[in-house]
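the two lines:
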Amino acid sequence: MSQPALSSTPRTELRRGRARGVSDRNALYEVLDAGMICHLGVVVDGTPRVIPTAYGRIGDVLYVHGSTGARSLRDAPAQDVCVTVTHLDGIVLGRSVFHHSVNYRCAMIYGTPRLVTDPDEVLAGLRAIIERLAPGQWDAARRPTRKELAATAVVAIPLDEASVKIRQGPPVDEEDDYSLDVWAGVVPVRQVLGEPVPDPLLPPGIPVPRHVAALATTGDLR
Amino acid sequence: MSQPALSSTPRTELRRGRARGVSDRNALYEVLDAGMICHLGVVVDGTPRVIPTAYGRIGDVLYVHGSTGARSLRDAPAQDVCVTVTHLDGIVLGRSVFHHSVNYRCAMIYGTPRLVTDPDEVLAGLRAIIERLAPGQWDAARRPTRKELAATAVVAIPLDEASVKIRQGPPVDEEDDYSLDVWAGVVPVRQVLGEPVPDPLLPPGIPVPRHVAALATTGDLR
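prediction for all of em together
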């Protein structure tokens, strides 16, 4: 736990639900390392655009990638972006409509993106993104050609300014409502990975690699 | 299928991956009605902010809610927002790093939010949000008091300007790569709901209502 605490800037200071804020850098890593897609917020022509995209993390840098032709990435380095990773963990059913909620873990990162130009960092960033989706795939799949790399933009966002919010547990109801004849509790939500489905064009005799088979989870809820 | 087609404006015209675009209004409804949280993008002090939040839909209007004290909602009516709902359906493992992808369904909505002031519409909007999380809960839980309503801001966003992108199926690899000795295919991803967990403070003798028990899914992947 020797990591520096998360920054508190006007953007990341939690105004609402302050009790749910977590100022531990390891909590940030945990939320990021448990996800596969983020929602990247950019401003284009004065209006916000929220784009789901894959991401990877190396230390205190988040990487996203896209086509060099994609406008949102091409414009992004000119201005700050917001990256949000959210895990929905449960539906919280209170005794009153007002106290319904969801259990979740959420990380929000603000930063000025940097277009990665160093070839080694481009490869490292791409590797982090692929390995986030499927650990082991970088070594299994064919590496990018020079032409493929030229068509790929990799953007780095520093994890300097971030906030983490976590809500877990049962509903918090009004004192008077606890005696109501209304069921209250949590319906857990979980993302599960299923058995790998081979590409119909896969030649016979290529088995599911161990690192891919390992992705499938049991479907049991924790 | 008598719905009007989705609009094509400069913001919703799909520049990248055009083949994945869907211009059917029913597809928009399906993506929205399959989700529980959206990512709401607003611009605050010139920078984007991406906030996960619950939502509901009534016809061609999307509703989100929040505290009347939350800055993102308070400021939202002054400017356009972007609402994105994403379902991650699979990890697409190609034969090359370059052709890795994810299967997903994604709706992006642009619009000028309207702060709902009509009391009936406030209730209808809240009901839509609650019922999206847990159908049947509106009639089961205590309705909001006047004080609770005063603390709740409901915002309506018209579904006039939206795009839907869907990617499903196996990887699409380079012709030369199909002969490689590399496994390729899809690892399905699904969100599952588990058995309801009663609030520890629930008095004995209050059974899980049928509409709550019905939320739990089997955990089987489709």
